[in-house]
From TrEMBL:
<dbReference type="GO" id="GO:0006281">
    <property type="term" value="P:DNA repair"/>
</dbReference>
<dbReference type="InterPro" id="IPR036412">
    <property type="entry name" value="HAD-like_sf"/>
</dbReference>
<dbReference type="Pfam" id="PF00702">
    <property type="entry name" value="Hydrolase"/>
</dbReference>
<protein>
    <submittedName>
        <fullName>Phosphonatase-like hydrolase</fullName>
    </submittedName>
</protein>
<dbReference type="GO" id="GO:0008967">
    <property type="term" value="F:phosphoglycolate phosphatase activity"/>
</dbReference>
<dbReference type="InterPro" id="IPR022468">
    <property type="entry name" value="PhnX-like"/>
</dbReference>
<dbReference type="InterPro" id="IPR006439">
    <property type="entry name" value="HAD-SF_hydro_IA"/>
</dbReference>
<dbReference type="InterPro" id="IPR023214">
    <property type="entry name" value="HAD_sf"/>
</dbReference>
<dbReference type="InterPro" id="IPR050155">
    <property type="entry name" value="HAD-like_hydrolase_sf"/>
</dbReference>
<dbReference type="GO" id="GO:0005829">
    <property type="term" value="C:cytosol"/>
</dbReference>
<keyword id="KW-0378">Hydrolase</keyword>
Length: 230
């Protein structure tokens, strides 16, 4: 493995604690479309939501509503509105050590790109609420890259945006199996899971994680150790 020159980091669950508001925003959107809690259809939909955390939200809605684009777009708009309101109410915060980890990586010559399954609007509202609008070298959503996770598009777009020399010099870090699958599909030199988002070490390793960290705060030390080994 070459020395890592780019870290591609997920937002919610990896660098940001969102107090469960992703699920709450999905609940709100489903309710707006007449799918209420307590029924088998609702339970099946929420299982799919949990299983696909990290994927583009509008893609999730397309699946939930059997490809009905109008319904998917309407539900996605309801999701974004609910999420923005919850962010504005202060329910999101940086995970301990996340900002310091990003600043440390950049100070030592490793570019950082934040990526997410949120739309650009939702992503930017979240970053603004944290004072993170200029924290990373770039920020990406599926709309910026073509496809969301588990496809490799956002990781490869991050490489092109930052001029990283090779996929082997890229590290991908996230809290969901979809993050791990995207990193593996991109050929990243390091794919690391974190345990701050509710998925187990076993599920992250099964999806392709090389390493599982307690939190993103441990990433600079891991990358430093990787550089020394290289």
């Amino acid at each position: 493995m070459t020395t890592l020159s780019l870290a591609v980091l997920d937002l919610a669950g990896t660098t940001v604690s969102d107090d469960g508001i992703v699920e709450d925003a999905f609940l709100h959107a489903l309710s707006r479309e007449g799918v209420h809690q307590g029924g088998p259809r609702h339970d099946a939909m929420m299982r799919y939501v949990r299983d696909t955390m990290g994927e583009s939200k509008v893609s999730v809605f397309r699946h939930l509503f059997d490809g009905d684009e109008d319904t998917a777009q309407r539900a996605n708009t309801a999701f974004e509105e609910a999420y923005a309101q919850m962010v504005a109410s202060g329910r999101c915060s940086a995970l301990p050590g996340a900002r310091q980890a990003i600043e440390s990586l950049r100070a030592h010559g490793c570019a950082v790109v934040l990526n997410t399954g949120f739309s650009p609007r939702t992503r930017d509202d979240l970053l603004a609420s944290l004072g993170w609008s200029d924290l990373a070298d770039a920020v990406l959503s599926p709309a910026d890259a073509g496809r969301g996770r588990p496809y490799p598009d956002m990781v490869l777009t991050a490489l092109l945006r930052t001029g990283a020399p090779s996929v082997d010099s890229v590290g991908v870090v996230g809290d969901t199996p979809y993050d791990m699958r995207a990193g593996r599909a991109a050929g990243a030199g390091l794919v690391a899971g974190v345990l701050t988002g509710g998925h187990s070490a076993q599920s992250l390793r099964a999806a392709g994680a090389d390493q599982v960290l307690d939190s993103v705060a441990a990433l600079p030390a891991l990358i430093d150790a990787t550089a020394r080994a290289a």
